[in-house]
Inverse folding.
């Protein structure tokens, strides 16, 4: 779906500025994005406080359940993230072709590498004008895969392996993910990697938010509003 | 001797009454988590089955497993199990020494070929052809391979035999390895711990002798009945964990009130063992009850995970050691600084180029 509309500037005598808009992100995908964003925030904060708990609660144990609530929020958000991710994989099959960009990085295409290089130069301030992209730019696509897809899968697998320890032997989580613990060595090693994974995703979120804001301002297409409304707007009508 | 002695014969010969014997069977059934109906079955098995000899080898170790084992708290286990299990060879506990001891080992191996159980305490060092541990003038690794050849099953006592323990800790100069790296063709039951709990040891061995099969094992080869849950899952201080009440310092109010030791490095949440249920010394206490966190002695490589008083593993880098949070925070800080710098340059460039924008 694409839309072309002409906007007259001011009194309309100097030039007609065209803005082309393309419908990129469908509603389920946008919903998934913001639900995942929220669950990552919840997971990061609660996860940190599981590893380094808040100061001791006063009073009797029976009157407090702070760690219980924090852990509940962590596990609930973990379920939301993991199930949402499965839904996202499903959407890659049934959604539009932009929905597949997250999972299928076209590393076999020479042109893609060329554009990747162009994008690297753009971020190093060596290119004056960026290229236009309907979906992700190559660098963004690669980063989304390496940081988000790999990171989320890693955190889900190690997370459910740790969750299985609480559910107990022969629980569904233990049958599905219990093999992860001996793979890493022992439980404490999985905890350590899960911690490192959190920081990996923290770095991802920082870079992701910064670049989304930055591109929204200096690139030639809309970024943030696209993930809200689904339409990619272009700021000029020069080619590519 | 036309027929081989049964356990019951041996126990009666040791002066144990039938009443005591039946009490022992009930206690064993209870200890193994079996119903009352199993007590007569255990009694029957012990009356009819020829006893299985156990050959107990000692490799590179500190003998803490033996020390724990001989303190088994069941009233009768101390008297019975030692005679009952027909410990035909254990160079620490047996009366014979030297050539007689080695002769007893060879005789049992010959007479009970494929029937005896091999229990290994400690582990073999592989470096320098195994010369870091010499038993009877020969490297322990040779004795281990020799005895394991005709064994029915193998028990790995303690963290040494199961995982490697302190002698296999970095940098492991003797190249000590857990026994499953050497014995690859026999079923191995791992009973980790440094040492394992006495009742766990006697429980495992009694199960194997009475039922003639291995107990149900988990993925890492540990009996599920004793290593199925973490210390944390059955810890009596768990309500304080859920409430968010922690010992922050060793001398604070929380320590006096018996709050959770999570923040002072308790490894209970990552350690599979029976300490919080079976406890130690006739069920008297266990480390957490004594006010000190679990150090995770039954877990693989527990010596190499950094401080016993930190929850997070120490990650060695180029000479400095940090934990996951310190590394993560440093990286996040670096990336944050990079983002700020990049944003600043972006803003400057944008101002510079303002004139020639379309």
């Amino acid at each position: 779906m694409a839309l072309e509309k002409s906007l007259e500037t001011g009194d309309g005598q100097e030039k007609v500025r065209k803005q082309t808009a393309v419908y990129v992100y469908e509603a389920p995908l946008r919903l998934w994005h913001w639900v995942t964003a929220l669950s990552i925030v919840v997971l990061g904060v609660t996860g940190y406080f599981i590893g380094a708990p808040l100061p001791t609660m006063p009073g009797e144990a029976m009157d407090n359940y702070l760690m219980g609530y924090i852990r509940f929020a962590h596990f609930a958000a973990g379920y939301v993230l993991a199930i949402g991710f499965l839904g996202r994989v499903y959407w890659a099959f049934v959604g539009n072709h932009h929905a597949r960009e997250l999972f299928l990085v076209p590393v076999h295409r020479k042109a893609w590498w060329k554009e990747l290089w162009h994008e690297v130069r753009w971020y190093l301030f060596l290119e004056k004008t960026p290229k236009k992209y309907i979906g992700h730019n190559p660098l963004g696509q690669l980063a989304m895969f390496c940081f988000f897809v790999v990171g989320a899968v890693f955190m889900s697998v190690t997370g459910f392996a740790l969750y299985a320890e609480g559910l107990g032997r022969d629980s569904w989580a233990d049958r599905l993910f219990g093999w992860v613990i001996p793979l890493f060595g022992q439980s404490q090693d999985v905890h350590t990697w899960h911690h490192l994974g959190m920081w990996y995703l923290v770095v991802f979120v920082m870079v992701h938010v910064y670049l989304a804001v930055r591109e929204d301002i200096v690139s030639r297409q809309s970024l943030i509003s696209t993930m809200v409304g689904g339409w990619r707007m272009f700021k000029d009508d020069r080619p590519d | 001797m036309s027929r081989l002695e049964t356990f019951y014969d041996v126990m009666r010969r040791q002066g144990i009454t039938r009443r005591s014997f039946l009490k022992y069977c009930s206690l064993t059934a209870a200890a193994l988590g079996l119903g009352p109906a199993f007590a007569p079955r255990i009694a029957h098995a012990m009356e009819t089955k020829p006893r299985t000899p156990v050959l107990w080898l000692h490799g590179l170790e500190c003998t803490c497993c033996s020390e724990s084992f001989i303190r088994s708290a069941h009233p009768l286990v101390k008297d019975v199990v030692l005679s009952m299990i027909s410990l035909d060879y254990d160079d620490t506990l047996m009366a014979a020494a030297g050539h007689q001891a080695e002769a007893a080992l060879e005789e049992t191996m010959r007479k009970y070929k494929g029937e005896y159980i091999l229990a290994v305490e400690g582990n073999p060092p592989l470096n320098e052809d195994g010369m870091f541990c010499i038993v009877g003038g020969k490297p322990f690794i040779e004795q281990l391979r020799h005895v394991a050849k005709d064994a029915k099953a193998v028990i790995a006592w303690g963290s040494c035999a199961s995982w490697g323990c302190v002698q296999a800790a970095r940098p492991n100069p003797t190249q000590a390895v857990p026994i499953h790296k050497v014995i690859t063709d026999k079923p191995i039951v791992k009973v980790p711990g440094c040492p394992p709990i006495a009742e766990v040891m006697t429980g495992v061995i009694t199960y194997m002798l009475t039922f003639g099969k291995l107990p149900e094992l988990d993925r890492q080869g540990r009996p599920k009945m004793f290593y199925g849950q973490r210390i944390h899952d059955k810890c009596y201080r768990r309500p304080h964990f859920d409430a968010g009440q922690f010992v922050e310092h060793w001398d604070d109010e929380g320590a006096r009130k018996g709050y959770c030791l999570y923040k002072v490095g308790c490894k209970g949440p990552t350690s599979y063992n029976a300490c919080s249920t079976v406890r130690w010394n006739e069920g008297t206490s266990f480390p957490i009850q004594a006010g000190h966190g679990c150090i995770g002695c039954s877990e693989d490589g527990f010596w190499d995970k950094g401080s016993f008083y930190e929850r997070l593993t120490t990650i060695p880098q180029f000479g400095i050691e940090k934990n996951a949070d310190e590394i993560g925070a440093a990286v996040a800080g670096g990336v944050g600084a990079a983002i700020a710098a990049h944003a600043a340059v972006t803003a400057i460039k944008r101002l510079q180029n303002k004139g020639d924008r379309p």
User: Anything to note?
Assistant: Chain A touches chain B through 50 residues (CB under 8 Å). The radius of gyration of chain A is 22 Å. Helices of chain A lie at 27-51, 66-94, 110-123, 138-167, 172-177, 180-184, 187-218, 224-229. Residues 105-232 of chain A form a domain with the Fumarate Reductase Cytochrome B subunit fold (CATH 1.20.950.20).
